[in-house]
Amino acid sequence: MTRVLVIEDEPQIVRALVINLKARKYEVDAAQDGASALELAAARHPDVVVLDLGLPDMDGVEVIRGLRGWTRVPILVLSARHSSDEKVEALDAGADDYVTKPFGMDELLARLRAAVRRAEPPGGGEEDVIVETGTFTVDLAAKKVHRDGADVRLTPTEWHLLEVLVRNSGRLVSQKQLLQEVWGPSYGTETNYLRVYMAQLRRKLEADPSHPKHFITEPGMGYRFER
Ligand code: CA
User: Fold this and answer.
1) Centroid of ligand 1 to alpha carbon of 11 (angstroms)
2) How far is the CA of 151 from the centre of ligand 1 (A)?
3) In whole angstroms, what is the distance from residue 130 CA to residue 132 CA?
4) What is the distance in A from the centroid of ligand 1 to the CA of 155?
5) Whether pTM exceeds 0.70
6) Under a CB-based contact definition with an 8 Å cutoff, are residues 75 and 67 in contact?
7) In the record, what terms sit under GO molecular function (predicted)?
8) Between β-strands 136-139 and 150-151, what pairing exists: parallel, antiparallel or unpaired?
9) How much distance in Å is there from the Cα of 91 to the middle of ligand 1?
10) What separation in Å is there between the alpha carbon of 64 and the centre of ligand 1?
11) I need a labelling partner for 10 at 20 to 30 A (CA). Which of 70, 131, 162, 167 fits?
C-alpha cells in the first residue's frame, strides 16, 4: 500500500485529499505544520509527500530541505502563489513536482502517481538496503540492526540518527544537519543531544565503545559512519 504524507494547514484541502486518497486505497497521514510533518515523516516513512508551501510555522522549502537530508521520498508541492520563484526554489531544494492551487483532484492524483512511479527503482527494491560491518548489520528496508545473531533494540531517535549516518556512509554529516534531520529544524545548535545519542549508539553497536571504528567524531564538525 502506498503511504502518503499530506502537509497542509487548510482543513478543507486536507479533508478533500484524505477522502480522495483513501478512496483510492492510499494510506494517509496528515500534518498541519512543518515541525510535526518532519516528525511524522521520520516516524512513518511515507512513499510520497504532498506539501503545501505556505505553512504556519515555517516555509515549506525548509521542510523540503529537512526531508532531503535523509530521504529521497518524492515530494509534490502545492503552491498557492503564482510566483514562479517560489516553485523554482522548491524544485531547487529537492521537490519533484508542483501543482498550483486551486488544483483539480484528478490532476493532483495523476501527478502523485507519476511521482511514485518515478521513484521506484527499475530493478525493484531499494539498492544497498543491507549494510554490513565487522560488528553489526543494518537492514535499512526492515529498519533492523543485528549484532551477534540477535536484533539490537534501538529507540526511534537512535534509529533515525543511525539511518542518516548510514545513508551517508563514508561522508561527514555536520552536527547541524544531523540535529535538524533527527530532532527538527529548531535544534541546529543542541550538540549535547548528539553527544548523548552517539554514546548510546556506540554502546549498543561498537565492539569497543571508547575506541569507535564505525561512528567517528570529526571534532567541531560532525560525525561519519565507516563500515
Ligand atoms: Ca497554507
Assistant:
1) 10
2) 42
3) 6
4) 33
5) no
6) yes
7) cis-regulatory region sequence-specific DNA binding; identical protein binding; phosphorelay response regulator activity
8) unpaired
9) 18
10) 15
11) 70
* Helices 60-68/84-93 angle, 10° precision: 20
pLDDT in the model for residue 14? 97
| Residue type (1 letter), 107 | E
d(CA 161, CA 35): 17
Question: Which domains does the chain possess?
Answer: 3-119 (3.40.50.2300), 126-225 (1.10.10.10)
**CA 44 to ligand 1 centroid distance, Å:** 22
Q: How far is the CA of 20 from the centre of ligand 1 (A)?
A: 19
75 alpha carbon – ligand 1 mean position (Å): 16
CA distance 141 to 127: 10
62 CA to middle of ligand 1, Å? Answer: 14
Examine residue 219 and say whether the peptide bond preceding it is cis (omega within 30 degrees of 0).
no
pLDDT digits (tens, 9 = 90+) for 59-117: 999 999 999 988 889 999 998 766 677 887 888 788 888 888 999 999 999 989 988 88
Does residue 169 have a pLDDT over 90? no
